[in-house]
Amino acid sequence: MSREKMIVVCDNNSLCHFLFRFLSEHGFDVFCSPADQSAVVTLVRAHAPTLIMVDMTISAKVGIDLCTEIRRFSDSPILLLCTGSDEALTISGLSAGGDDYIRTPLNLELLLAQVQALIRRYKGTFPVNQRHLLHFPGLEIDLSAQSVTSHGQETLLSAKEFQLLVLLAKHPNRIFHIESLYDLIWSDNKLGDLRTVMVHIYNLRQKIELNPSNPFYIHTVRGAGYKFNGKAAQ
User: Fold this and answer.
1) Which residue blocks in 96-137 are alpha helix, DSSP H?
2) Residue 211: pLDDT above 90?
3) Cα–Cα distance, 134 to 102 (Å, whole number)
4) Full-model pTM
5) What is the DSSP string of 188-223?
């Protein structure tokens, strides 16, 4: 059986060697690269990896630029390694093309589970030529074009509405507290009003739901927050 290929982008030699050893022991062919855009692009084109891991602690701009460049030609899932305190960097990385993230210091069992889940989702959910798309019944989200088609009609979303929808849709059934959504999407405005989240959820429902008062995609979890309907993701 062939081993899945993975690229680890990291300027921390100790961490890179540790990840290489750990992931190799768990059945992956691992290629390590410094956070040099030209080197990473060459490696991704040469090996067409099943997953790319990007250390976002290297520098915000470098990590975001890498994700953006990779998304120009590759649909391989990108797992971001983020510090526990930098919510702004996390959402920037997800908006630039990252598919999921894990906090440092690393929990190795969780890391392996997330890697395997991302690969299963990548290989099993979308045809090879459509992995930049999120498909749900009546809803299509194009991550490359940053566009949304709802029930056969192109739907115009604001940048924040799109970021909010992508964040929820990429994590079906995960409950996001209002405070977390605000911190992730509106991280540049810490003094804002949490009602901003509710207004954007309301506007999203008006635009993508057939019946906004009885939404199919975005559910309210009373006393907790919001989640994307897992049944829509099946």
Assistant:
1) 108-125
2) yes
3) 21
4) 0.59
5) T-TTS-THHHHHHHHHHHHHH-SSTTS-SSEEEETT
Q: Decide: helix, strand or coil at residue 143.
A: coil
Q: Residue 190: pLDDT above 70?
A: no
- The Cα-based distances of 51 to 39, 70, 150, 214 in angstroms read 16, 12, 29, 37
Report residue 104 as tokens: 């440092």
Q: What integer pLDDT is reported at residue 233 of this predicted model?
A: 61
CA–CA dist 194, 178 (Å, integer): 7
For residue 85, give every residue at least 6 positions away whose Cβ sits within 8 Å of its Cβ, in sequence order, or none: none
Instruction: Quote the CA–CA distance of 76 and 66 in Å, as a whole number.
Output: 13
Query: Measured between alpha carbons, how far is 175 from 168 in angstroms, rounded to an integer?
Result: 9
Residue with tokens 């921390």: 12
Determine the length of the chain: 234
